[in-house]
Specification:
3 domains; 11-stranded mixed beta sheet; 32% helix; Rossmann fold; alpha/beta
């Protein structure tokens, strides 16, 4: 059976270990028992409320008999039972990992992430994961005497699962696996900054590899029944399985790398990447505002890419007047009939893959030398190419925000260098972890260090990041 690295991080400033953790909701006493006073939120079901409060739906109905014959009403108040805390403290920072045959019952790590020692240990965990090793750090326990106020202070615990292909079982990990590690490190810094006296975090980290079987084993178990959000996943076969589970259990799934229209139609899916239609719509809006000063053209070919076809359709939807030039004419430098010397010529190429259009660049440069003003509709992924022709493309990222505080934290915790290019995967992990926690807490926007995020619902299905920036270069 394929091995799976499983790590659980209980991330919290530990003031006490309770028989049942107190959540950040008002407390009442009814018939000598403590209960939470909870106001029903939008788009939540009885099962999800039970998971959040660690009780069964039957217990909720017992305390709220009006639910026996009807469903939940948004805004109504429920009473939900809770246990009393045990006044006892343990102040230990422990990180453990080993390689399991199955994802069931992974080892546990208890930690307060404000400790640089913890961050060093977590780094060692990933680096030594393929060696069946164990890394542990224990700090000296602090004063175990709690005041009465400390012993009853309520807090909320948010449990998140991070699922990425770390390739922990590979002798030599690929560059992609190193980027996944940076994503993970950024997520840790985000949770470190988010934790407070009233909000604690549990983070479960899984090396999901490429296999759908491994993911299915995990979700067929009860291990993730307390999880309130899932971040990660790369491969469509895994995303399909997990998105269905999330819809059934009302758990948000934030996908950092997917850009599939079919997937984002599913409830509880949050897709960060923009789809072709969204990118094309943004470009067409940009062209529409300049149509008096520019002329739109497309390079027509038999092998048009999906993006080029979507772009053509969106130009029609925006009622943009455009003409065409054949790929053969462009290659023969015979396109005078299609170009306008009085306007800037915005050219849609036949492919969004640079290797497919690289051969056209000298011909476009010659048109510039002949006095035509040319701008091509390019892609974010072309930014590193040596293209001298003006471009316009869409981006989800920005490099103009101050990151001094974050970079100082990175240096303190990890003592390593991170990628300097945009997008940085550590900042992606940082921003999307903040976005997922924000969603769980009711926010639909995230003003990140590298990305601005505003979740917009796709019909009655999932949610898409609605902020796409236009880059003129």
């Amino acid at each position: 059976m394929k091995k799976l690295l499983s790590i659980i991080l209980l991330i919290a400033s530990v003031n006490g270990i309770h028989a049942q953790e107190m959540l950040n909701y008002p407390l009442d006493t009814i018939n000598g028992e403590e209960v939470y006073r909870y106001q029903v939120e939008r788009s939540i079901g009885l099962y999800r409320i039970g998971v959040n409060f660690h009780v069964t739906p039957e217990e909720i109905i017992r305390w709220n008999p009006q639910l026996e014959n009807r469903g939940l009403h948004y805004g109504e108040t429920l009473h939900i039972p809770t246990g009393r805390p045990v006044v006892k403290e343990s102040k230990a920072v422990i990180v453990e990992t080993n390689v399991k045959e199955t994802p069931i019952a992974p080892p546990v790590a208890q930690a307060g992430t404000e400790s640089p020692k913890l961050m060093d240990a977590i780094q060692k965990v990933i680096q030594s994961a393929a060696k069946d090793s164990t890394v542990a750090i224990t700090e000296t326990p602090k004063d175990t005497t709690l005041s009465a106020q400390d012993s009853v202070a309520p807090y909320r615990t948010i449990e998140i699962a991070l699922m990425l292909p770390f390739e922990s079982q590979q002798t030599k990990r690929s560059g992609n696996a190193e980027r996944m590690l940076e994503f993970y490190q950024g997520a840790l810094i985000a949770l470190n900054n988010l934790q407070s006296d009233s909000v604690h975090f549990r983070l479960r980290v899984y090396d999901t590899g490429r296999s759908e079987r491994v993911v299915s084993q995990l979700f067929d178990s009860t291990e993730l029944n307390q999880v309130q959000g899932i971040l990660g996943l790369v491969y469509p076969i895994q995303i399909e399985r997990v998105s269905s589970w999330c819809a059934d259990h009302q758990v948000p799934l934030l996908l950092p790398f997917s850009a599939e229209e079919e997937i984002v139609q599913k409830p509880y899916v949050l897709q960060f990447n923009s789809m072709d239609k969204q990118q094309a719509d943004s470009i067409c809006s940009w062209i529409s505002h300049r149509e008096a000063h520019c002329a739109a053209l497309e390079v027509r070919a038999s092998d048009m890419s999906d993006y080029a076809r979507v772009m053509r359709k969106q130009m029609q939807n925006h009622k943009i007047t455009y003409s065409g030039m054949s790929l053969r004419d462009l290659m023969n430098d015979s396109v005078d009939y299609a170009l306008d010397r009085e306007k800037e010529n915005i050219i849609l190429l036949h492919s969004d893959k640079y290797q497919h259009v690289r051969i056209l660049m000298p011909h476009l440069e010659k048109l510039q030398q002949d006095g035509y003003r040319i701008r091509i509709i390019s892609q974010y992924s072309w930014a590193k190419e040596n293209i001298t022709i003006p471009q316009v493309y869409t981006s989800l990222f920005t490099a103009d925000k101050s990151r001094e505080s974050y970079d100082a934290q990175w240096a303190t915790y990890f003592n390593t260098t991170h990628a300097s290019d945009t997008p940085r995967y550590d900042l992606l992990g940082y921003d999307l972890t903040n976005a997922l926690v924000g969603w769980i807490q009711g926010s639909k926007e995230e003003h990140g260090l590298q990305s601005e995020i505003r979740w917009e619902q796709i019909g009655d299905g999932g949610w898409q990041n609605g902020i796409v920036r236009i880059i003129e270069k």
